[in-house]
Amino acid sequence: MRIVVIGTGYVGLVTGACLAETGITVTCVDTDQAKIDLLNSGGIPIYEPGLAELVARNVEHERLSFAASLAGTLERADAVFIAVGTPPDEDGSADLSAVLEVAGQIGQQISNYTVVITKSTVPVGTNRRVRAAVQAELDRRGVAVPFDVASNPEFLKEGDAINDFMAPDRVVIGVESEKAKEVLTRLYHFFALNNVPILFMDIPSAEMTKYAANSMLATRISFMNDIANLCELTGADVDAVKRGIGSDTRIGKKFLNAGIGYGGSCFPKDVKALVKTGEENGYNMEVLKAVERVNERQKNRLFDKIVKYYGGDIRGRKFGIWGLSFKPATDDMREAPSLVLIGKLLEAGAVPVVFDPVAMEEARRKLGDRVLYAPNMYAALEGADALVVVTEWQEFKVPKFTYIERALKEKVIFDGRNIYDPVQMKDFGYTYYGIGK
């Protein structure tokens, strides 16, 4: 089986490499020549654990290749994935310009039956527009090439994307014909053999499933952060509460950690897009609007604790910041709580000294010379007034506290991810502030 994946960003490259690993012949296409040159030279344009090795292995076995043009790639393809970006517009709606542009290009190139599969996260109704864009180009060419559209949303966690793709909870596929279903069944045969549920449904339901899933997870996070803030006021411990409710099988344990809000490329834009879809259909998504408000407020929580501790004035104070990416195991800083915190520290006249295991280059692009960059986690604390934990990287969870003690002016920790035990911190002589403690 042969497929083409258009887009070599996070979703496209992971999709292409993982499907090649199942034995399918994959061509990944991207108009960014620099990306294609990098991939053809053995590099990868994004950070994702295990991806470089996966790409290299499948290139070596001639199951995976890269091209800078769609021309000629679709001649023998059974299906083509659209995996380009859908960033939010100013009004919160998904920008579909790249998706529809690619759909038009597919219509210019296909010459035999092809299933056009939307992998990008798109609002309900997008595949109708994809079909129209493909058909418009076929009409312009004056040819009658049969094709189908399908929706196959991704459910990848940055930092664990390969495992998520190769061993998913389920594969969601929206189709409009039995022929398209047959092609997608062959495409995901490897997964069916491994007892992965393949959930076929109509296309609008598949489109909605993606947004509903991410919005549900974002809702759990904001709910627990609301509970955490109330715990602080009532004397409860949010971690004890988490254990108490997480043991209920109706609720489960995942996405119940309190902290300083969610970020990244998915949750913020998908919640906004679903709210916008509601508005476009005359419906007010009240719960999700509250989820957004809680999350934006929560990103200020750590800063508020810092300012309160220092009596309202932090001018000239130095803070060692551990963690910049929105979550561990990625260099992604899109919508990261660290950016909100650092921005507020700078506005208040403080001096942030930052360190992240993999996001330093990305931080330099976003923050420039407004902050100080440390070569390692302990150097970030030299002469600092306090340690501020923003991202729960594994190496931060079990640090050498004797190093921390020697480096800091005062033994103060502001822990935005609750990675330390308050009782232990007290025993070690630290002034400790967590979330919901």
The gist of it:
The chain has 3 domains: 2-201, Rossmann fold; 211-297, N-(1-d-carboxylethyl)-l-norvaline Dehydrogenase, domain 2; 299-433, NAD(P)-binding Rossmann-like Domain (Rossmann fold). The protein is built from 18 helices and 14 strands.
Q: What's the helix and strand layout?
A:
Layout: E1 2-6, H1 10-21, E2 25-29, H2 33-40, H3 51-60, E3 64-67, E4 79-82, H4 97-109, E5 114-118, H5 126-141, E6 147-151, H6 161-166, E7 171-174, H7 178-187, H8 189-193, E8 198-201, H9 203-234, H10 238-246, H11 267-280, H12 286-298, H13 301-309, E9 318-322, H14 337-347, E10 351-355, H15 360-367, E11 372-373, E12 386-389, H16 394-397, H17 401-407, E13 412-415, H18 422-427, E14 431-433
Parallel strand pairs: 1-2, 1-4, 2-3, 4-5, 5-6, 7-8, 9-10, 9-12, 10-11, 12-13, 13-14
Helix pairs in contact: 1-3, 4-5, 9-11, 9-12, 11-12
Describe the 3D structure.
The model has no long low-confidence stretch (mean pLDDT 96). This protein has 18 helices and 14 strands. Helix content is 44%, strand content 14%. It has three domains: 2-201, Rossmann fold; 211-297, N-(1-d-carboxylethyl)-l-norvaline Dehydrogenase, domain 2; 299-433, NAD(P)-binding Rossmann-like Domain (Rossmann fold, 3-Layer(aba) Sandwich), CATH 3.40.50.720. It has 437 residues and is an alpha/beta fold. The strands form three sheets. A six-stranded parallel β-sheet has the order 3-2-1-4-5-6, sandwiched between helices. Strands 11-10-9-12-13-14 form a six-stranded parallel β-sheet. Strand 10 (351-355), helix 15 and strand 11 form a beta-alpha-beta unit.
